[in-house]
Amino acid sequence: MTNSAVVKRCPWAEFDPLLRQYHDEEWGVQVHDERKLFEFLLLEGAQAGLNWLIILKKREAFRVAFDGFDPRKIASYSSRDLRSLLANREIIRNRLKIAAAVANARGLLSIQEELGSFNKYIWAFVGGKPIEHRFRSMSAIPNRSKESDAMSEDLRGRGFKFVGSTICYAFMQATGMVNDHITGCFRHKQV
User: Fold this and answer.
1) For the whole prediction, is pTM greater than 0.70?
2) Does 77 qualify as catalytic in the annotation?
């Protein structure tokens, strides 16, 4: 989309073409689609202890392995399905993270049943609209907030796993719940 020599973007996106594409096209864009929200929640949990570039490189493999991030299918995974995922070299093969994906799918379905929409539930943590930040440097951007703390606490209370406040904040950044593009970045005003 853009030439990094001409366009100013967030520094974390400069060193790899896949990160640039993700930054320029997805990161910080509001997501309201239930399955896409679940995809980001699952991928952010898988990223714990790793870096986002690893996840982006494996994203399509995750999509295939986890049935297009369909929470109904994932919630019904059998022990055989879990063994198959643990043997899949194309994804992050962490037993706890794979089990968390199943628990989180079940939690998402429970929220949909109780409240009608995971989208409405999750966006309520930011009052239904994005929090607009005006950070000038990456060092000013927090890795958690009172909103991510509340989201994490509530999700954990509902049985979700790998949803600590830092993971929730990264989820909020990815799905446009907060705009953490630095002010000098061309995407800051766009999202």
Assistant:
1) yes
2) no
